[in-house]
Every structure is written in C-alpha cells, then in structure tokens.
C-alpha cells in the first residue's frame, strides 16, 4: 500500500442522483423461492434498488452536477477539471467526461477525462482530483462518480441479481490554502482481475449475440458473458485480507484512532461484509452509516450517496471522516479528511428518459 | 478448538442443531453448503483464527474433515 498527504484542497459539496424507478426484490421470489430470497435480503441488508434502463450513469451524474452547481453558485467557466469515474460509460469512446463537458457547457480550458474503476473509485477519484489540483493550473474540480450496474446483470444469477443499484454523484473540490490536509492510501491486486468482471463487450471479447446469450453456470445461475459475474466468496476473502489493514494504515497516517474518527463511510458492498469488517476493526455501529436497504450496492457512488443520505449534520459542521473503497480490480483506496461543512443537496430522483429529453441517435 | 466444537460451529453456520454434522460427511451431500454458507465459513475462519481463506481452497474440500484440515493447527482431534 502507498500513501500520501495533500494539503490546500477542500471538498465543498456532494450531490447524488438515482433513477426514480424502484426495483424491489419480490419479483425474485418466483425465480429463486421465498426462503432463499429472504435469506439473501437478511444477509445483504438490501431491500430495494433504483434501476432504469433508459438512464445512463452520465444522466445521473449530470443531474447531481447541475444541482451542486446551482447551490454552490459556481460559474461554469470557473471549473478547470472534470473527472468522470465509472465502469458504465456512454460509449467505448469518446470519454463520457468529454460528452458531459459539452452537456454542462464547461469552458474550453477545462480538462476532462474518464477513470475506469468501481467500488474503490470514490477515494481514488478524490486522490486524483486533489493531486492534480495541488500540482497547479486547476482551481476548481467537478468529480463525478457512479454506475448503472443494474443494467448489466442477469436476473437469473443469484450472485448479482439482488445486489446492484444505480446512482450517479458529483463532488465539488476547490483550492483552499488553509484547509486541513487529506490523507490518502491505495493499493491494487491485479491477480484478482476475474473476481468481478463483465467479460464481453471490450476488445478482448467483442460483442456477439452468442456472448449475450444466458446459459446455465454454477449453482443453477444463468448469465451471459455480457453480464456482470462476481465470485462473492473471493470478494469477501479479499476484503477481509486488505480492508482492515487499509483502515489501520490510514488512521496511523492521519494520526487518528477509532475514537477520534467521527464516521467510517465504507463502500456499501453488503451488510454482512460491512458488519464483519466493523467488528474486526472495532468500529462502533453508530459510526458506520449503511444505505444498503434503500439503494443497494451502487459501486463508486455508494460512499457519496451514503454521505448525502445519512450524514446531514455535515451541512452544519465538519466530521473526521474515513472513506474506504474496495472491490473490482481488485483495487482499494481510502481518504481520511475533515469533511464539512458541505453543500449537500437532498438526493435527486431522475425520471425515465422520454422523447424530447436528451436522446442521441445512431448515425444514419 | 476441538473437532467437535468445529463441527458444532459448522452446524451453526448451516442453521441446524449442534451435533447434526458428523466427521466424514461429504460436502456435496449437504444441501445447506452453498455460496452463502461458504462466505459465512470464510467469516468464521477470519473471526476465530484470523485466516483469510480463498474460495478455491474451500471448493477443493470434499468432506467436513477437509474443511477442518484447512484450519490446521487451530482445529485438533
């Protein structure tokens, strides 16, 4: 694991948007049986998710960004950097950040690029934003993170069907010479690249109708190579191997301990995993916000959406916050920072895309 | 931890009365040995013995005794 401390950069606000459409788990009673579904709900803590096949991550991030910009009263021309962190981009290329740069009406002097990371992505993205800002030339950054993973799962695969929800978030950062430093820690283990994967659709296995056909796999689960595949046991084993060390290293670097840390916002993987990690790291339940019941696992959006939903006190005051991301890659990262007071608009619900709304078409 | 205690823990993971599982039982004959109990077993090994078992090791086990062997030297008898 590597670490750094960056000063002079402040998080000013966080916004999160989800599709208005809710997806409950009841329909799965028919597929997997009531007993099994209830057992899964009890273990994951997930009761419903948000999912809408007409919305892309970019649409959700755009709604978050617009709301944040309005509350912050930032001039669009004052934004120097736009980062879009997601594994569900609009197109293989151009970068979705470039599309969003156009939709947001940002200035031509603003840098825009994508980062392909998932569950570990939020602290990773903060680190990239803060590093670039500290290196000069950038005063304000809009960091967008989220995924619409629910669009890429097989409803007949119990290892993924009842886990993932969609969300897109926006975080505003500004250079602020007197702000307290942010401590970052990160790591990767690429030998675990297959643990969570959507195998087809890139250049290694280009899309074909055969690869999009669902066939029976392990334990009676059906999925296609274009669906997300997840080895839950290996994710768990990786997490208990790396995350407790990550928490200890980050606290040491920041000079904090469990007691002096106000909140531990962990990537919302599932309740069983979070509670196991909290017990192992001796984090009291009251310092571990959980947003799984409403939104499920929203990948890189899970940390910011949990902050928006469960830490409203951040509007008034600051909290010693430890943000911990881990998962697909395999990859992990953390940020220890004094977060707040923040601009924190309520969670935005985005309606289905309809004719007349933003609707790019295929070339004639 | 004795083998009997270990089997009782395994019973608890599978939500059945302690004493149900016997040494020598094949995992493929246990309907409750599924992806969720595998994760709970990994959690148990971590909590009790601070071991992060990869799933490949668990999947190569054929009997409950093989599972106990994975936890060597923590499970004896």
Describe the model.
The complex is a heterodimer of chains A (364) and B (77). Chain A is globular, with a radius of gyration of 20 Å. Chain A is of the alpha/beta class and 364 residues long. Chain A has a six-stranded mixed beta sheet, with helices on both faces. Chain A has a five-stranded mixed beta sheet with strand order 1-9-16-15-14, with helices on both faces. A two-stranded antiparallel ribbon of chain A has the order 3-4. Chain A has one domain (1-364): Thiolase/Chalcone synthase (Peroxisomal Thiolase, Chain A, domain 1, 3-Layer(aba) Sandwich), CATH 3.40.47. Chain A is built from nine helices and 17 strands. The relative contact order of chain A is 0.20. The model of chain A has no long low-confidence stretch (mean pLDDT 96). Chain B has one domain: Non-ribosomal Peptide Synthetase Peptidyl Carrier Protein, Chain A (Orthogonal Bundle). With 77 residues, chain B is mainly alpha-helical. The model of chain B has no long low-confidence stretch (mean pLDDT 90).
Give the topology string of chain B: H per helix, E per strand. HHHH
The CATH architecture of chain A can be named as 3-Layer(aba) Sandwich
Q: Count the helices of chain A. How many?
A: 9
Q: What general outline of chain B do the C-alpha atoms trace?
A: globular
What is the strand arrangement across the widest sheet of chain A? 6-5-7-8-2-17
Q: SSE layout and pairings?
A:
The complex is a heterodimer of chains A (364) and B (77).
Chain A: E1 2-6, E2 9-19, E3 22-24, H1 27-32, H2 34-44, E4 48-50, H3 57-72, E5 81-85, H4 96-104, E6 111-115, H5 121-134, E7 140-147, E8 167-175, E9 182-188, E10 196-198, E11 215-216, E12 222-223, E13 228-230, H6 232-254, E14 263-266, H7 271-281, H8 292-295, H9 302-310, E15 319-327, E16 331-339, E17 348-350
Parallel strand pairs in A: 2-17, 5-6, 5-7, 14-15
Antiparallel strand pairs in A: 1-9, 2-8, 3-4, 7-8, 9-16, 10-13, 11-12, 15-16
Chain B: H1 3-13, H2 35-49, H3 55-59, H4 64-70
